[in-house]
Each structure stands twice: as C-alpha cells, then as structure tokens.
C-alpha cells in the first residue's frame, strides 16, 4: 500500500488574512496578554471584541488586582454572555437573555461608567446593571487577559466566573479599548490564525500524542465502541486499554483494522481489510 494522500502535516489555509481573527482553545490556557490598553479605565471603561464559538462556556476577557476583588470579566456560560465587575464593594453581574454559541460572528461591547455597566451585543443593549456600595473605581494590575487566563490566575479567580474555568474555544478579532484597537499582545500562548476550514474532533500530529479518556476503565463482558477516523497514515494505534495481563487494542496496520482482546485466556483477533484503498 502507498502513502496516505493527505499530508502528514496540515497545510496552512491560504484564505486566512488579518480579518480572519485568532483561534483560541487548541491548547489549555491559550490566551493573549496585554500589559497596557488604550485609554484610562479606573472610572470608565469601554471594551469590545468580536467572537465566534460553538461552545457554551469560555472566558473572553479578564483583568483584576492581585487579590481578585477589583476585577472586570466577560465570559460565556451556557451560551449566554456574562459581564461582571467589582469596584471593591460587591460584584455586578449582567447576563444576556439570549445565547450566542452558534458559530457565527458577534460583536460584544461591555462598558462601565463608575458603578454602572452596560452589555451590548450586535448593537442591541441586552443588559444593564450596577455594583453595590459606594466605590466607583476599579484598580487592576497587568496583564489584561483575552481569550483565556493563566493557570495561576485561575486558582485565585475562579469564584469570579461562576463555574466557568476554561478559556474560549473559538475565534476572536477586533479587540478594542476606548474605541481604539488594542494593538499587539504583550504575550500570547497557544493561539493561531482563525480558519473556517476546521472540523470537530482531535488531531494527532506526526510528533505523536494521545488522549487519556478515563483514568480507570473496566472492559467487562460486553462493550460497544465506535469512533470516526480520518487517518493521514496507514498505520497507528487507535485505542488501547491494558491491565496486568488483559488488554484491548484497536489499531490500523497497513490500512487494515485489527481489533485484539485478551481476557486472560489468550488473544482474540478480528481483522477488517477494506475492499478499496482509502488512501
């Protein structure tokens, strides 16, 4: 059998340009960090960004002081946008009534004027609210996080996200502060240009890799397993479960699918050879 017609390394999308945006979420804690943003934000802040995602949850923006009492946060939870801020005397939480995880581009503006906040999506005001107490300013330390946060920040700030712990899995573009482009990030982690030519699922590159689905797994007497595969090579392990002597193994060898099981009485092997070459 010959080599798979698909390249071992995916090709770059030639249609990606500056307006395509940035994809977040390919790795854990992917994010952009900004040490400075245009304008002054202690009493008032005007922030906006375009986003596109099919996932229900994800952190879009976060900035806080080191105790995470004063903060500004924008995130998705159950597909709805949540804008939260705290001037130091209690949090405000503004939530959209509609969901926006439809894999279409949306523009969100999350503005604060002292204790008063406004959440605007696609030019419509969807929520307004105020924080309690008398404090009217927010003090934050650098950096400002976009698309996700660092693991160190998550450990101290998870209470500000109402159960959302991961960054956005999707695309962002046109991040602006005080109606001006935010510019280039001071630091970026695990992001890439946003292509529309993507598929759901997990990709394993030529460098290798694996997913540990569960820590402990008991095969038992009966089991049904199904998966979809789109291989770029004709040989490789698809699934493996091993005990001290027992094992279950699904692999592809030179284009043939081989399923092997040993429950302690010797291996049982089933082989499927496709009638046509799918490579």
Question: What attributes characterize this protein structure?
Answer:
42% strand; mainly beta; single chain; 19 strands; elongated; Jelly Rolls; seven-stranded antiparallel beta sheet; 279 residues; eight-stranded antiparallel beta sheet
State the separation between the terminal residues, measured CA to CA: 9 Å
- By CATH, the topology of the largest domain is Jelly Rolls
**Low-confidence runs of at least 5 consecutive residues:** none
- Main β-sheet, in a few words? 8 strands, antiparallel
Total tally of structural domains: 2
The CATH architecture designation of the largest domain is Sandwich
The global form is elongated
Structural class category: mainly beta
Write the element-wise H/E pattern from the N-terminal end onward. EEEEEEEEEEEHEEEEEEEE
Q: What would the average pLDDT be, to the nearest integer?
A: 90
Q: CATH top level of the largest domain?
A: Mainly Beta
Counting DSSP E segments of at least 2 residues, the number of strands comes to 19
**Tally of helical segments:** 1
Helix content: under 10%
User: Measured on Cα atoms, how large is the radius of gyration?
Assistant: 24 Å
SS strand fraction = 35-45%
Protein name: Laminin G domain-containing protein
Organism: Daphnia pulex
Domain Laminin G: 21-194
Region (Disordered): 1-20
């Amino acid at each position: 059998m010959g080599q798979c017609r698909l390249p071992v390394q995916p090709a770059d999308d030639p249609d990606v340009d500056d307006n395509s945006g940035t994809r977040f979420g390919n790795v854990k804690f992917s994010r952009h960090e900004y040490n400075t943003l245009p304008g002054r934000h202690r009493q008032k802040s005007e922030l906006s960004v375009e986003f596109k995602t099919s996932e229900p949850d994800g952190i879009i923006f976060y900035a806080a002081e080191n105790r995470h009492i004063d903060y500004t946060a924008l995130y998705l939870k159950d597909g709805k946008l949540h804008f939260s801020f705290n001037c130091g005397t209690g949090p405000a939480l503004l939530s959209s009534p509609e969901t926006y995880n439809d894999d279409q581009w949306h523009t969100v503006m999350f503005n604060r004027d002292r204790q008063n906040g406004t959440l605007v999506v696609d030019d419509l005001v969807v929520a307004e609210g105020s924080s309690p107490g008398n404090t009217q300013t927010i003090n934050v330390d650098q950096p400002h996080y976009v698309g996700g946060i660092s693991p160190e920040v998550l450990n101290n700030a998870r209470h500000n996200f109402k159960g959302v712990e991961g960054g956005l899995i999707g695309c962002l573009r046109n991040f602006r502060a005080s109606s001006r482009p935010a510019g280039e990030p001071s630091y970026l982690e695990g992001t890439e240009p946003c292509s529309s030519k993507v598929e759901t699922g997990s990709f394993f590159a030529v460098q290798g890799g694996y997913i540990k689905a569960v820590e402990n797994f008991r095969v038992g007497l009966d089991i049904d397993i199904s998966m979809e595969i789109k291989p770029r090579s004709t040989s490789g392990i698809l699934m493996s479960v091993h005990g001290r002597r027992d094992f279950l193994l699904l692999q592809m060898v030179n284009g043939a699918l081989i399923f092997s099981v040993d429950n302690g009485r010797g291996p049982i092997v089933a082989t499927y050879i496709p009638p046509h070459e799918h490579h």
